[in-house]
Design a protein that fits this description.
By secondary structure, the chain is an alpha/beta fold. The protein has eight helices and eleven strands.
């Protein structure tokens, strides 16, 4: 049994696969506590599922592009991910905080897409995790992997240097995602452009993609 906060279908609102219809499975629990987190993944009022029940839900949603494993931190539930990977007809899309490299290696063969965060100290109010992110990207091998960075007005040049060189080292796309307050970014358009331009100068594979699902008012 595994505790799941919610299961629903919607569009993917973040990253390069934005706009695809997905089945979202939101797992409870996380190994981090980011200051900007706007997701309810607490186990309170969560529902317990068997792996067989989750597999059936996935296979009954064949019109979806893929299954988004999100949270919380889904890599805290590697046994469930393995079961889904072995039995689910849809590809698995992992949304992760990018800090649990050893857990990733356990399930890598079952995952098709990886959306991995890079956590900025200026935005999370937590210590730097550069080495953990680097280990995670190395563990991902040749999987379809991109890095997502949530930022606000406090992002600094040192952080820009770190995220761009890290993504350049592994030749992966860097997705800049401005922090949102409701439907609106907390930074203005001029600042977004400034940060994008700084990143592109170092790593051309950089894109600015806000949370589209919030703009169009879907879950």
């Amino acid at each position: 049994m595994v505790k799941v906060k919610e299961i629903f279908t919607s569009i993917q609102g973040e990253g390069p696969l934005v706009g695809y219809k997905q089945l979202f499975i939101r797992f409870c629990g996380c190994n981090l506590k980011c200051a900007y987190c706007d997701t309810d993944f607490d186990a309170k009022n969560a529902q317990e599922y068997t792996t067989e029940e989750l597999i059936n839900v996935c296979n009954n949603n064949g019109d979806c592009h893929s299954v988004s494993l999100t949270g919380g931190e889904p890599l805290m539930h590697t046994d469930v991910i393995k079961a889904l990977g072995n039995n689910c007809k849809l590809p698995l899309y992992l949304e992760t905080n990018g800090t649990l490299a050893e857990n990733l290696t356990e399930v890598l063969d079952y995952i098709t897409y990886i959306s991995a965060d890079i956590k900025l100290p200026s935005c999370t109010n937590m210590p730097p995790m550069w080495e953990k992110h680097e280990d995670f990207f190395a563990a991902a091998g040749d999987k379809y992997l991109f890095a997502k960075v949530v930022f606000d007005n406090n992002i600094n040049d040192f952080e820009i240097h770190k995220i761009t060189h890290l993504c350049k080292k592994f030749d992966i796309e860097l997705i800049l995602q401005p922090m949102m307050s409701g439907k609106f970014p907390v930074v203005n358009s001029e600042f977004m452009q400034e940060i994008l331009d700084k990143c592109i100068k170092i790593h051309p594979k950089t894109r600015l993609i806000p949370q589209v699902h919030k703009f169009i008012d879907v879950i």
